[in-house]
Specification:
The chain is of the alpha/beta class and about 290 residues long. The chain has eight helices and 14 strands. α1 packs parallel to α2 and α7 runs antiparallel to α8.
């Protein structure tokens, strides 16, 4: 077992996004603390990005590191970096859960930091998150826009009580009541993992963070925004219809799980949402042609 109990396991998922993952790896080389493990989980990319990451890290057959999980195709380790390729695209949560399942078996970490690969981290962010961590909490730095670093992207999120739609809070003077923390960045300790368990895998992508934070608040786990540090996240303004479909479908899944009496209203709203986004997709497709 790799025993480094004060360390943090940083977990990120790659899917057809080599440049983002490359930039994150380079970014992590310059942060102030080196006491972390980095887990890069490739969700069966089909654009050669996995091989590019493999080459970037200068892995070879000498770095094979056997991990017992039926979702894993192959895995490698060099120094503090694990590169794990899955047999299929099992979704975001399933990928993230792979390293979480390994704790206490393959390695021992006190903290976990799940982050998107399209983020930029300040030099001392991880140090601040560890030193200022409040027990029994899920926390995150302030999230700013990578393309416009003066713009706040998220100070936590709220859920519309009727329609179960989500919204990022962006006002520094008013973000006391948050319902969940975006999956862009989730920092927590081993005890929270023990209480709250892994991220739910039924969503594939979208609303897994909403579900996990709902479970956390039900378990009296606090949701905290650390305003003493920030990360920068690339905002995606062009979400395609497939991703919108996942978001709408998973809103219904979340509704069915936690608020079944709201299904009729949320279903009607979701149907109109699907029609709107599908029409928009068809118009854009027509314009491209």
């Amino acid at each position: 077992m790799i025993n480094n109990y004060n360390s943090c396991s940083i977990i990120t998922v790659n899917y057809n996004s080599f440049l983002y993952t490359k930039n994150l790896i380079k970014n992590l080389e310059y942060i102030s603390t080196k006491n972390f493990n980095l887990f890069i989980i490739d969700n069966f990319s089909d654009d050669n990005s996995y091989q590019k990451i493999f080459n970037l890290l200068k892995f070879s057959s000498k770095n094979i590191f056997f991990l017992e999980d039926n979702k894993i195709l192959e895995s490698f380790k060099k120094n503090n970096i694990f590169l794990i390729r899955l047999k299929s695209n099992y979704g975001y949560s399933a990928a993230v859960n792979i390293p979480l399942n390994m704790n206490d078996k393959i390695y021992l970490s006190k903290f976990f930091w799940i982050i998107n690969n399209d983020v930029e981290i300040e030099v001392n962010t991880l140090d601040i998150l560890k030193k200022e961590y409040i027990l029994n909490s899920i926390t995150t730095p302030m999230v700013y826009d990578l393309n416009n670093k003066n713009n706040i992207q998220s100070l936590g999120c709220t859920i519309n009580s009727l329609l179960l739609t989500t919204k990022n809070l962006k006002n520094l003077n008013n973000f006391n009541k948050i319902d969940f923390i975006s999956g862009v960045s989730l920092f927590f300790d081993k005890n929270v993992l023990r209480i709250n368990g892994n991220l739910p895998e039924e969503y594939f992508m979208y609303y897994e963070d909403v579900d996990w934070c709902k479970k956390a608040t039900d378990n009296d786990i606090k949701l905290i925004i650390n305003t003493n540090t920030k990360i920068f996240h690339k905002k995606n303004n062009n979400v395609d219809f497939k991703l919108k479909f996942f978001s709408i479908l998973n809103r219904l899944r979340f509704c069915s799980k936690f608020h079944p009496y709201k299904i009729p209203l949320v279903l009607i709203y979701s149907i109109f949402g699907l029609i709107y986004h599908f029409t928009k997709y068809l118009l854009n497709f027509k314009n491209v042609k």
